[in-house]
Amino acid sequence: MTDVINNLKNKVLIATSQLNGTYFENSIVIICAHTEEQGAMGLVLNRPVDIVKFTDVTDSLNIIPKISPSEQPKVLSGGPVDVDRGFVLHSPEYDLETTIHLDLELSLTASSKIIEDIAKGRGPESYDLCLGYAGWQPLQLEQEIIENAWLISRVDMNMLFSIPYEKRYNLCLQNIGLTDVSQFYQHGNA
Q: 100 - beta bridge partners?
């Protein structure tokens, strides 16, 4: 396997038409962890959950939000695994003992403390709140990439946190020079 496939941490996966009809159809996923021995873990970054509100999350944790309803974040479906568990992908200035720094510009925290801080207006400057995550067994994701289920892109920090969720998929395609995934197959890559 290529070095790119062996080192997917901090890369963005873009679902191709191979994944149409599945949970991952038209999804983009940031890979937060990836090793050959343990597989991969990532978060879907363009799938808001309309039936779960931020207040549902805070109520479940017995937290009373002090921020106005207009300041309350949307909740994203981070993936189909462990959907009751929250993950916050955020800017690096916010730091708890449990925070994982993915790189110099991006961190991940999975703690009720970050939800409390967001609810009180003292959380990270920029963030996405996800319920659940996407997970792959060892070598499963690599095989899916070989089978053209995913395209690989760099993380676009301008896209994270500032671009509306519904525009993120197309922006990721544009970042790799495509206007839609069907172009990938037209170039003989399938």
A: 108
